[in-house]
Specification:
Helix content is 29%, strand content 18%. It is of the alpha/beta class. The chain has a ten-stranded mixed beta sheet, sandwiched between helices. A three-stranded mixed beta sheet has the order 12-13-16. It is found in: Cell membrane. Its main location: membrane.
Length: 499
């Protein structure tokens, strides 16, 4: 291993393609536990196992805080790693001048920012998104929307959530931005859940929109603007499998009314896996002569952690690992940059002194001072209390009496709250391919987007006079890219939008 590292070359050529994988809520503890879980599923030593992306040659650490919060949510963090700007909690695609829910402020051009998807399209590259959440959820929305409230996913949501507190007449909901505005309307690939946010209310519809059916709008737009291209709308795994991506130019895949189901609870006959969606997306995008930028989210890691369903969270992490492995197999390290990271952490911890090879989802094997054992994995905050109060005493839950083999067993938490909130820990970044050495060290989360732009040699500014040279500057000295410039740009953006 050390010998391989000593011979690891720095790939300083331009990245033709970029794939950004994001494990929502994939904390460092989640990675460690998932690695062990993977090995134990294969009856091997889990501690020495590895996830696919843990073998990438370069790793870094990202600082995830929002401008106004120590602990990030998926909205402000998406704005950071996709748009290169730190923002306020609950806002997407806008600067920190915009507070959550402030529609009038969010429509001011000087308060809006663009994403790596827009930068890629300006450079003539194809783009797409894949997620296991709603396609209008915070993380994927960071790639195309500019909104003051992360929950304004449909027109009905806007009316319900704003409740007259702000003038929303100037703002468009997230789903509408995806289908009708740049860069979303130009996406070659859109795959995930959230069908109801795009469909109109009706007798034979489960949609919730009151204004228009955006699925129909998507179909009409592709027929109008790309009459010579082939577009497909699919809703099941079978329809996806029967679509020849090498002969398809645009695909809209909405595989669930809401978030997609956890793999351990899903109907494998009707719902594609993250790996399958990713493979199909790459097959479609690989035809593009100028390359592509693809965003892939394993969003259900976070959802499971919110419920303290540790087993499901680890399993969804393995699903992301499979998707990454598939992407690695389908692409070349010579021209494709792959970055794997997370938006924020969670409060799950791995503690105690379990024996080597002990079930990661089981008991620690040691006794606490109350003469009861405890689970190796637990949460600081969550819906299942660690302690029980009755009329005579206050005592800890005896986990030996509980069924830890249940798929959705809720692991105990210290602080009683309806759901596990996020953790404020730094998160890992893994990279391979051209300019992947840019992603080493400890840095602000918004540097990820800027690093991707630099690696792909694309501008963060709109093209002027046919030129796509902007504020991403590549300086070469002795054959090595000087990283100082991107760090300075990152710091300048933080100062600009927090002053």
């Amino acid at each position: 291993m050390l010998e391989e590292k000593s011979k690891q070359p720095l790939r300083t050529n331009k990245a033709k393609n970029v794939i950004l994988f994001m494990g929502d809520g994939m904390s460092l503890t989640t990675l460690t536990a998932a690695r062990i879980y993977k090995g134990q599923l294969q009856n091997t030593s889990g501690e020495s196992e590895h996830l696919s992306f843990e073998q990438f040659p370069f790793t870094g650490i990202s600082k995830t805080y929002c401008v106004d919060n120590q602990v990030a949510d998926s909205a402000c963090s998406a704005t950071a790693y996709l748009c290169g700007v730190k923002a306020n909690k609950g806002t997407i695609g806008v600067t920190s001048k915009v507070k959550k829910g402030d529609c009038p402020s969010s429509v001011l051009e000087e308060h809006r920012v663009t994403s790596i998807m827009q930068w890629a399209q300006w450079a003539g590259k194809a783009t797409g998104i894949v997620t296991t959440t709603r396609v209008t959820h915070s993380s994927p929305a960071g790639s195309y929307s500019q909104i003051a409230h992360r929950e304004w996913e449909s027109d009905v949501d806007m009316m319900k959530i704003s409740k007259g507190t702000t003038n929303i007449t100037q703002c468009e909901d997230i789903a509408k931005q995806l289908i009708t505005r740049e860069p979303g309307r130009n996406f070659k690939v859109i795959m995930g859940g959230g069908r109801d946010k795009l469909m109109k209310q009706g007798v034979n519809s489960t949609g919730i929109r009151s204004d228009e059916d955006l699925v129909i709008s998507w179909k009409n737009d592709k027929r109008t603007r790309f009459s010579d291209k082939i577009s497909k709308y699919v809703t099941t795994r079978d329809e996806l499998a029967k679509t020849d991506m090498t002969q398809t130019d645009f695909v809209l895949g909405l595989f669930h009314r809401d978030h997609m189901d956890y793999r351990l609870k899903s109907n494998v006959e009707t719902q594609p896996t993250l790996q399958e969606m990713t493979r199909n997306a790459i097959q479609l995008l690989q035809k593009e002569p100028n390359g592509y930028v693809l965003f892939v989210e394993g969003g259900l890691i976070d959802m499971a952690h919110h419920n303290t369903w540790a087993r499901i969270a680890l399993d969804e992490t393995l699903e992301l690992s499979k998707a990454v492995a598939n992407a690695v197999a389908m692409t070349s390290e010579d021209d494709t940059l792959i970055v794997v990271t997370s938006d924020h952490a969670h409060t799950m911890t791995m503690a105690g002194y379990p024996k080597r090879n002990a079930n990661i989802l089981g008991l620690s094997g040691t006794m606490a001072m109350d003469n009861m054992t405890y689970t190796t994995l637990s949460y600081a905050i969550g819906p299942k209390k660690s302690f029980v109060n009755d009329s005579t005493s206050c005592h800890r839950v005896n986990v030996t009496d509980e069924d830890l083999k249940k798929i959705d067993y809720q692991y105990p938490s210290l602080v009683d709250q309806s759901r596990d909130p996020h953790g404020g820990d730094d998160v890992m970044v893994f990279a391979r391919g051209p300019m992947s050495h840019l992603f080493t060290g400890i840095y602000e989360q918004n540097q990820i987007a800027l690093g991707i732009a630099m690696a792909a040699d694309i501008s963060t500014d709109p093209p002027t006079n046919g030129s796509n040279i902007g504020n991403v500057v590549r300086l070469q000295f002795a054959g090595q890219t000087i990283l100082t410039i991107i760090t300075l740009i990152s710091l300048m953006r933080i100062l600009q939008y927090t002053s």
